[in-house]
# Entry
Amino acid sequence: MIINNFRQLAKNSLRKKALLIAGACYQAIDIEKVISERINLKDGILEIRSAKIDSLNLNNFKRVFIVGIGKGSALASAALAKILRDKLTGGIALDVSNVKCQMSNVKCFQGTHPLPSKQNVKATQKIIKLVKSFKKDDLLITFICGGGSALLCGSQKELKNSVLATKLLTQAGADIKELNTVRKHLSKIKGGGLAKLAYPATIISLIVSDVPTANNDLSMVASGPTVYDKTTKKDAVHILKKYNFQSPLSDFQLLETPKNKKYFKNVKNILFLSNREPIFAMAEKAKELGFKPKIYSLKIKGEAKNVLIPLIKVVKKDEVILAGGETIVRLKKLEMRNEKLGKGGRNMEAVLGIMSKAQIAKRKALNAKRLALSDKLVVMSFASDGRDNTEAAGAIADDSTLKKAKKLKLDPQEFLTNHNSFNFFKKTGDLIFIKPKTFNVADFMVILKEK
# Structure
């Protein structure tokens, strides 16, 4: 089972079913499994199956390279390297995980996330040096995955600006589209910059989307290093002004992303995986377990502590409500009071938000029925890559969680105010831990209710 602490969390039948549904999600995004099922090489013909089948004759290229960027990209690059074998000339992957690639000609580097660091810059500069060497008869296959915006950082100047912008925009509550728009215009490699550097080589970019936007906007995944960027410097300036950025805008020296479309003529961007596949896998598992699945949204957003409330209000008996997307956690007010931040992530905060609301409703007898937790209802929220800004993937909760909190004299609202969800669920024993071998396709929320 991919959930490491399955037995400890499966305290009753309904919890066990909830965890089995989560397990189906993780199976659908297991990196090595997905790549072995979707990528095949026979007689020099590389076949890639995603929404449709794409094929490419590797015999038409003098050299073939892999570049992986983002969470899960190192394991994905290593899996692809095994398939390509002697057709592969070399490659580089930059990930948050420390992955040893069995193919000696693929170098895997570990970087930091959510903020970039000097080690990110070092690895990115190796990628830049590699792609600048490409010729017209070379092929580059990339894995572009979530987390790449922080990992891909081309210079010390970009590092300084990106750290500052990420901290301030995140604390102010900017969404991922706004954040990545600014990060694109601080970089020479994001926003189509990688495609420009690799020109005139052919690029096949396999994109694993973690960005819940309309029509799966590929330009926002890892800030779109191989995708033509429609945003401009003016858009970045507008976003910085919107959030009352205090530092002079000239400090950033915002850059324009490549607008000459010739750099993208030899680029094919493929949506390789998104949150649709795991959501549908969970729905099938829910049916198998006797529940009626309902997909609430594939691009849910909003403040984490409130996002599960509409779902819990609409779930009916013998139903499973499923949602995917990415929420935000607003930290600005806490920072302004100079209080110490706790430890946690979006998913744990989402579940803690329900705990707090349920406790308050119960105490005041307001909406008590609509927000009640019982042994007949389970709530979960978890990160697809298994890291919800911590070593935990997320949290699971039901009425037993509130009872345990009461016994331990834990106030959910106090932990929520301090954004200390990890330590709340650590004390109640409701953190979810998984094996780190899955793609990052944002977050998932699951609510089960039985008769």
